[in-house]
Design a protein that fits this description.
Length: 480
C-alpha cells in the first residue's frame, strides 16, 4: 500500500470495499511516521490510543455491514493549535508544554463524527505566528520536497505531513496565509474558507477576527469533501455563520466556462519571482482555454495590506495572549517570589522571541494615545481593502494570483529578518483581512523542482466557485 498516494476519496472507498481494515491502515501510518518523521518533524504528538479506538469503531461497523459515516477510516493530522481532549496541545509553545485539554475543537469533533481518524498533532509556528515553521519551540519542520528548505508556515507540519504521505489530509489554520502559503511550498492543496464558515471553537486564538480553520489535502476534491464536514453553524462560536453548506464535491464537477476571473495588476509587480510568474500565467491561460473570461483589474489599496495586517493581528494577539499568566494552566516560573513576578517571569521564560515581539507591538498599537494612530487607522484601511474586493466582485466571479512571491526558501534564510519573513505573506493576508475564501492549488514547479502555488480568492461563502476553478487548474496541470 503506497500511503503517499492515498486520498480521502480513495481511502474511504478502500475501507468500504474491505481492501484493508482501518486498524491495519492506522498501523501502517504509524510505521511510516516512525520511519520518516524524525527528520521531517511534522508531528508533535501522536494520538495512538484514540486513533485505534476510532479505527475499531469503523471496523466494527464494516464487519456488521452497517452504513458507514462519510469519512470512515480516513487518517488525518491536526495542527497543534486545535485543542484535543486528552491529547497534549501546545500551539508550538513552551508555555503550553504540558497542556492536556479537557475538550475537543469543533472542527476536530466533526471530522471524527464523520468517521475520520486523528493520527496526531502537527508542528507549527508558536501560536501560529510565522511563515516558515521556524518559530516552533519544538524545532522546525523540513519540507518533504527538499529537506534543506522550509515547509512554509505556520501550518508547516500539516502541509508537510500531507506532502510526505504521513497523513491523508490535515487541518490547518490561516490568519494571514498559514494554510495557503505552506500548501504552496509543499505542493499540496490548502483551503481557507470564508470567515465564519468553520467554527473557531477550540482553536487557540491568535487574532480572532482573522483566524480560520481549513483543510490541507492532496487533491482539490479532497478539500471539497473535508470542508463539507467541518463547515456550518456552531452554537459555541457566535461568529460562525448560519449559511447553508453545499455539497462541494458535486459543485466542483461543474464546468468553469463563462466564469469571469480578475487578474489584479498589483499582484504581479516587483518582488514576484520569474518562475512563479510564468507558472501562474500559464495556469491563467489554461483557465482561459477552458472558457473563462480573463479581466485585468486593480485592487488599489493592496500595498497597505501587510502593514494593516501586522497592526491588527498583533493588537488582537496581545489581548488573546494575556491569558497565559501562569495561574490557571500552562507554564509557571519557579523563580518568582511575588504575584507580579510570577506573571512576568512565566511569560518571559516560556514565550519565544517572535511572540514577545508581537505582544509588544500589539500592546503599543492599542495603548491610549496611539490607538487612534495605529489600531483605528488600520481598521479604516481594512475597510478600504474590503471595498477594493466589493468593487472587483461587481464584475468578476473570482480573483486569481500567485500564492507566494517565491517558492520555498532555505531553512535559516530569513530568520534574522522579521520584515523579509512578513513579506512571504504579501499575497495572502488580504484574503484574511477581507474574510473571503481562498485556495492554493499547485500549478507547476521551478526548474529545481520546487512546487508553485496558484491562489484563487472568491466571494464571501462562495467556496464552491473557488474549488471548481482550483479543480480545473489541477486537471489542466495533469493534462499537460
Ligand atoms: N505568517 C503570518 C504571520 O506570521 C500568518 C500567520 C498565520 O496565518 N497564522 O502572522
Amino acid at each position: 500500500m503506497d500511503l503517499g498516494l492515498l486520498t480521502v476519496e480513495s481511502t474511504r472507498t478502500a475501507i468500504r470495499e474491505k481492501q484493508f481494515t482501518a486498524g491495519r491502515l492506522v498501523d501502517e501510518f504509524y510505521k511510516k511516521i516512525t520511519e520518516d518523521d524524525p527528520e521531517i518533524q511534522a508531528y508533535l504528538a501522536l494520538s495512538r490510543e484514540r486513533a485505534l479506538q476510532q479505527a475499531a469503531r469503523i471496523d466494527d461497523l464494516v464487519g456488521r455491514g452497517e452504513a458507514l459515516p462519510p469519512l470512515a477510516g480516513v487518517p488525518v493530522a491536526i495542527k497543534d493549535v486545535m485543542v484535543t481532549k486528552g491529547v497534549r496541545t501546545t500551539a508550538g509553545s513552551r508555555i503550553l508544554e504540558n497542556f492536556v485539554p479537557p475538550y475537543d475543537c469543533t472542527a476536530v469533533a466533526r471530522l471524527e463524527t464523520a468517521g475520520a481518524i486523528v493520527l496526531g498533532k502537527t508542528n507549527c509556528d508558536e501560536f501560529a505566528m510565522g511563515s516558515s515553521n521556524e518559530n516552533s519551540a519544538y524545532g522546525p519542520v523540513r519540507n518533504p520536497r527538499d529537506r534543506s528548505r522550509v515547509p512554509g508556515g505556520s501550518s508547516g507540519g500539516s502541509a508537510a505531513a500531507v506532502a510526505a504521505g504521513t497523513a491523508v489530509a490535515a487541518l490547518g489554520s490561516d490568519t494571514g496565509g498559514s494554510i495557503r502559503q505552506p500548501a504552496a511550498f509543499c505542493g499540496v492543496v490548502g483551503l481557507m474558507p470564508t470567515y465564519g464558515r468553520v467554527s473557531r471553537y477550540g482553536l487557540i486564538a491568535f487574532a480572532s477576527s482573522l483566524d480560520h480553520i481549513g483543510p490541507l489535502t492532496r487533491t482539490v476534491k479532497d478539500a471539497a469533501i473535508v470542508l463539507r464536514y467541518i463547515a456550518g453553524r456552531d452554537p459555541q462560536d457566535a461568529t460562525s455563520a448560519d449559511v447553508t453548506v453545499p455539497d462541494y464535491e458535486a459543485e466542483i464537477g461543474k464546468p468553469v466556462k463563462g466564469l469571469k476571473l480578475g487578474v489584479p495588476k498589483e499582484y504581479f509587480g516587483e518582488g514576484l519571482d520569474a518562475e512563479v510568474r510564468i507558472a501562474v500565467e500559464a495556469a491563467i491561460q489554461q483557465l482561459a482555454a477552458d472558457g473563462c473570461e480573463i479581466v485585468p483589474i486593480s485592487l488599489p489599496h493592496t500595498s497597505y495590506a501587510i502593514p494593516t495586517y501586522y497592526v491588527i493581528a498583533t493588537a488582537e494577539a496581545s489581548a488573546n495572549l494575556a491569558r497565559y499568566d501562569g495561574v490557571r494552566y500552562g507554564y509557571r516560573s519557579k523563580q518568582a517570589r511575588t504575584l507580579a513576578e510570577m506573571y512576568r517571569k512565566s511569560r518571559d521564560e516560556a514565550f519565544g522571541a517572535e511572540v514577545k515581539r508581537r505582544i509588544m507591538l500589539g500592546t503599543y498599537a492599542l495603548s491610549s494615545g496611539y490607538y487612534d494612530a495605529y489600531y483605528l487607522k488600520a481598521q479604516k484601511v481594512r475597510t478600504l481593502l474590503a471595498r477594493d474586493f466589493e468593487e472587483a466582485f461587481k464584475t468578476v466571479d473570482a480573483i486569481v494570483t500567485p500564492t507566494t512571491p517565491t517558492a520555498a526558501f532555505k531553512l535559516g534564510e530569513k530568520t534574522d529578518d522579521p520584515l523579509a519573513m512578513y513579506l512571504a505573506d504579501i499575497y495572502t493576508v488580504v484574503g484574511d483581512l477581507v474574510g473571503v475564501p481562498g485556495i492554493s492549488v499547485p500549478c507547476g514547479q521551478t526548474k529545481s523542482g520546487l512546487p508553485i502555488g496558484f491562489q484563487i480568492l472568491g466571494k464571501h461563502f462562495d467556496e464552491a466557485t473557488v474549488l471548481r476553478l482550483a479543480h480545473a487548474v489541477e486537471h489542466g496541470l495533469a493534462a499537460n
